[in-house]
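Posted in: Structural Biology > Protein-Ligand Complexes

Title: Requesting predicted complex, flavin-adenine dinucleotide in pocket

I'd be grateful if someone could produce the C-alpha cells for the following input. Sequence and ligand are given below.
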Amino acid sequence: MDRVNRVVIVGGGPGGYESALVAAQLGAEVTVVDSDGVGGSAVLTDCVPSKTLIATAELMADMEEAAELGISFAGTAAADPLGPVGESGAGTVDLRRVNDRVKALALAQSADIERRLTRDGVRILRGRAHLDGVNKAVVAELADGGREELEADAVLVATGASPRTLPSAVPDGERILTWEQVYDLKEIPERLIVVGSGVTGAEFASAYNALGIDVVLVSSRDRVLPGEDADAAEVLEEVFKRRGMTVLSKSRMESVTRHGDRVTVTLTNGQTVEGSHCLLALGSVPNTGDLGLEEAGVNRDEAGFIKVDRVSRTSARGIYAAGDCTGILMLASVAAMQGRIAMWHFLGDAVSPLDLKTVSSNVFTAPEIATVGWSQNAVDAGEIHAEAVTLPLSGNARAKMQGVRDGFVKLFCRPGTGIVVGGVVVAPRASELIHPVAIAVSESLTADQLAHAFTVYPSMSGSIAEAARRLHRYNG
Ligand SMILES: Cc1cc2nc3c(=O)[nH]c(=O)nc-3n(C[C@H](O)[C@H](O)[C@H](O)COP(=O)(O)OP(=O)(O)OC[C@H]3O[C@@H](n4cnc5c(N)ncnc54)[C@H](O)[C@@H]3O)c2cc1C
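-- Reply #1 --
Done. Output follows.
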C-alpha cells in the first residue's frame, strides 16, 4: 500500500484552509496549525468583517438616493426614542448593533470553515507554529499549553500579514485604530480621519461616509486609489466629494497623536487635521518574523515576504508558501489559489502555474470598482498593445431607472485578433458585473464573442456587451 503523504499547514486563513481541503481530497493526512482562529484574518478581521460593514453602508447609500425614486421616510432621527447613534439623510445607524452583527457573522463563518475542515478529516491545532530546521519538521506551541512536534512530507506556510503601523502613529484601540480594531467602536465617530487612500482606506472611508459619519481621507498621492485605473479613481473621488467627504490629496501623514477624546493628524507640510478618531490604513507587513524560515532555508525578500515561484514553491525543498505572507497579490482569492496550486503540485495532480492576469478584483466602495486582466497603466506604458473603449453607464436604461449616474465599462482588446485582455467596471455591484469580462479574459474570447451573447434588457451587463460591440472591426 502507498504511504500516506503528511502535510502540515501553518496558518488557517484562505491560503491555509483551501490548501487543506485540496490536500485532504487528494488523500493526504493534513494538520492545520492556527493561532487566531480558522478562517484567518480574512474571515475574522479583514475581508468578511469589512464587507459585512459595507453591506450596511450600501443600504444606507441606497436609501440616500431613495428620494429621487419617489420614496420618503416617515421616521426621523428625532423620533427614535433611543436617540440617533449615527445619522445620515436617510436614517440612523446603531453602530453597536452593526458591529455586533459584523463580529457574530465573522465567528459563524469561522465555525463553518472549521466544521468543513473537520468533516473532511483535517486535524486542526490551535497554537503558534514554527519550522524546526531543514527537515520539514514543524513545532506547534499549543494554546492550551502543550507542545507538539509534527513531521511532514510537505509544509505550507500561510501565516498572512498584519496592519502596518509607525512609531509616530501607534494605535491605542480606542481612538487611533487599525482596521482590525474598528469593530469594537461603541460610539459613532464624530469625525473620522482615515489615513491612507489605497483599497482599504478607500473602502472604510466610503463605508463610514455612507453611514453618515464626517470623514476626512488623507492621501499621500495626488488621487485616491493610486494603484487602480485612473479614470475609475477619478469617478470615485468625485463621488466622495459630492457626498461630503473631505479628501486631502498630496498630504503625507507624519504623526497621529491623541489628547483626551481628540486626535490630531500632523502632515509632513506642518498642517494638522483634527478629529475624534483616526483609522490607519497604511498597508500590511508579512507575518514571517518568528517562523524559523531562515534556518529552514526559506528565502524572503527585503520586506520580509517569502519568495515563491508560480507553483508556490519556496527556496526550501518541500516547503511551500501561499497568501499574504508571499506578498504576490494580497487577496483572499489569490491566497486560496496559491494554496490549492501548492497542494496540486506536491500531490501530483494536474496544475497550472498562477496567472495573475486572470485575477478579478474589486474595490468595495460606492460605486464599486472591479478590474480584470491588463490595465490602462500597462497599455499606456506600452507593455501590451491594446485598443480600449469606455462606455459611461449614464446611457444605460437600467442605470437610469435605478438612479445610477456614476460609472462606466471599459474593455481592452488586442488590435489584430480582437481578443479581450482586460476590463474595468465602475458601478454598483461591479464585483458581480466583472464576471463575463473575467471569463472572456481567461478563455481568450474575442470582443465579438462577448458581444454576441444575449444580455437581459434592461440590464447593467448590457453595457458590457455594448462596449464589446464597439470594439468590432469591420473586415469586409
Ligand atoms: C480590510 C481588508 C479587507 C479585505 N477585503 C478583501 C476582499 O474583499 N476580498 C479579497 O479577496 N481580499 C480582501 N482582503 C485581503 C485578504 O484579507 C487577504 O489577502 C487574506 O486574508 C490572505 O489570506 P492568508 O491565508 O494569506 O492569511 P490570513 O487570512 O491573514 O490568515 C493567516 C492565519 O495564520 C495565522 N498565523 C500567523 N502566524 C502563525 C503561526 N506562527 N502559527 C500559526 N498560525 C499563524 C494567523 O493568525 C491567521 O489566522 C482584505 C484585506 C483587508 C486588510
